[in-house]
Amino acid sequence: MDIILLGPPGAGKGTQAGRLEDEHGMVQLSTGDMLRAAVKAGTEVGLKAKALMDAGELVPDEVVSGIIGDKLDELGPDQGVIFDGYPRTAAQAASLDEILAERNRVLSYVIELAVDEDALVERITGRFTCGKCGAGYHDTFKQPAVAGVCDVCGSTEFKRRPDDNEETVRTRMQEYRAKTAPILPIYEARGIVRKVDGMGSMAEVNDAIEAVLSL
Ligand code: ADP
Ligand code: ADP
Ligand code: ZN
């Protein structure tokens, strides 16, 4: 089963994708994570993406669609995936249709994470992750059980994203409203959109997604 998690920055896509990976063996394909890895490695893609990401603007469609296709080819045909942060434009949605069709894959659901915009700035400015294993945390909503120590791997190094500041978040939200929200009707017309309330606790949102997926 392949699904898309769709929602504005900070809606909880990465958090929920991580749970589906851990509990149901699905694989998370996050274009944001892939681009950050490319920036860190200093690849050609990374060099193209860095300034745009720092400004909160979208990276060109061909760049992200290319890396998504490559990643899918590394997986077996029966491995279910969660698209997290992709597609983000109508052009990317069209590319995804081709990418999936070429590989005989079917998109089962688009989970729309519905959130109040006011909550997003707080979610994003409080976000941090483990520098070693990537586990996600929040200053207020999800602190490590032992302060300063990752619950998952025990590392004491954490990091924050340079684009997780209030000003860049505003630009990212505008990009979402202008370019990403308008792709929902494409999937609504196919009858595969399921709206989930993203304002509950992480566990509640997880339960609601599992109910949709009958997991
Ligand atoms: P996205 O991938 O959509 O940008 P994240 O999953 O990274 O969002 O979540 C953004 C921040 O909000 C993280 O710090 C995460 O721990 C926190 N968070 C995620 N889901 C919830 C929730 N349901 N309630 C409170 N905080 C949440
Ligand atoms: P968010 O927490 O906002 O969901 P992501 O990690 O998904 O953040 O994306 C971070 C940045 O990476 C975006 O602001 C954008 O610059 C770039 N990016 C990620 N995915 C895409 C995509 N599908 N298309 C274009 N740009 C992308
Ligand atoms: Zn860790």
Can you characterise this structure?
The chain is an alpha/beta fold. Strand 5 (127-130) and strand 6 (136-138) form a beta hairpin. It is built from 9 helices and 8 strands. The relative contact order is 0.19. Helix 2 crosses helix 3 (44-55). The protein is globular and about 45 Å long. 47% of the residues lie in helices and 16% in strands. The strands form 2 sheets. Strands 2-3-1-4-8 form a 5-stranded parallel β-sheet. The chain has a 3-stranded antiparallel β-sheet with strand order 6-5-7. It has helices spanning 13-24, 31-41, 44-55, 61-73, 90-102, 117-125, 166-180, 184-188, 202-213, and strands at residues 2-6, 27-30, 81-84, 107-114, 127-130, 136-138, 158-159, 193-197. Bound molecules: adenosine-5'-diphosphate (ADP) (2 copies) and zinc ion. One adenosine-5'-diphosphate binds next to helix 2 and helix 3. Residues 130, 132-133, 135, 150, 152-153, 155 line the site of zinc ion.
Give the gist of this structure.
By secondary structure, this protein is of the alpha/beta class. Helix content is 47%, strand content 16%.
